[in-house]
């Protein structure tokens, strides 16, 4: 078994050196947590669910609207009074 750096008695911060890697960080109070949230969230949602997958819901929506419109018109015609029944009334 190969001895690790921890087993050799080094502290956790001194386990190894990395060259060529730079890390930058901002304090939590300096970060803008919601920067670009509204516009980016809207654009990503639109692109994912509307632009890329329109064929899943547009045909069903059009079909459901046409069925609804036909049912409304048929119901209106079926429930109205027949004007010929009242032609001789005064």
Low-confidence stretches: none
Q: How would you characterize the largest beta sheet?
A: none
* Portion in beta strands: under 5%
Instruction: Please state the average pLDDT score.
Output: 81
**Helical stretch count?**
2
Percent of residues in helices = 40-55%
Please provide the count of β strands.
0
How many angstroms separate the termini?
A: 111 Å
Q: How would you classify the helix and strand content by structural class?
A: mainly alpha
Gyration radius over CA: 35 Å
Order of helices and strands: HH
Shape category: rod-shaped
What would you say this structure looks like, in words?
The protein has 90 residues and is mainly alpha-helical. It has a domain at 54-78. Helix content is 46%, strand content 0%. The protein has two helices and no strands. The relative contact order is 0.04. Pfam families: UcrQ. It is found in: Mitochondrion inner membrane. Keywords: Electron transport, Membrane, Mitochondrion, Mitochondrion inner membrane, Respiratory chain, Transmembrane, Transmembrane helix, Transport. One of its GO terms (cellular component) is respiratory chain complex III.
């Amino acid at each position: 078994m190969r001895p690790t750096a921890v087993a050799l008695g080094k502290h956790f911060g001194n386990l190894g050196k990395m060259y060529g890697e730079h890390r930058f960080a901002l304090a939590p109070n300096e970060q803008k947590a919601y920067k670009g949230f509204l516009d980016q969230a809207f654009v990503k949602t639109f692109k994912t669910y509307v632009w890329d997958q329109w064929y899943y819901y547009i045909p069903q929506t059009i079909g459901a609207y046409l069925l609804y419109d036909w049912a409304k018109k048929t119901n209106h015609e079926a429930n109205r009074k027949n004007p010929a029944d009242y032609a001789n009334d005064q």
